[in-house]
């Protein structure tokens, strides 16, 4: 995702979700990638499913701290989640 190869990333995530359909971080990555690809309704649906599993995700720092600490990918993922429709508090 850091290289903006979103179609390739989506393909890899979808394959992973076939094997493990309820893995939270895969669902979050999928929502973020769909957000970057500007697939509005599909991105929003993926985001809603992800947030159902992660109701404690309220602010950007929640994502940075809990899900991808010290990762250079945190900001592009957060940006994709926002594009998918996430409205972080604060």
Automatic annotation (TrEMBL):
Database matches in SUPFAM superfamilies: TPR-like (SSF48452)
Name listed for the protein in its UniProt record: Uncharacterized protein
């Amino acid at each position: 995702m850091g290289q903006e190869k979103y179609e390739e990333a989506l393909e890899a995530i979808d394959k992973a979700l076939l094997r493990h359909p309820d893995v939270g971080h895969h669902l979050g990555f999928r929502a973020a990638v769909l957000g970057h690809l500007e697939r509005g309704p599909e991105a929003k649906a993926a985001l809603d499913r992800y947030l159902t599993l992660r109701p404690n995700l309220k602010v950007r720092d929640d994502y940075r701290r809990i899900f991808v600490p010290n990762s250079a990918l945190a900001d592009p993922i957060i940006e994709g989640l926002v594009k998918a429709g996430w409205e972080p508090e604060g």
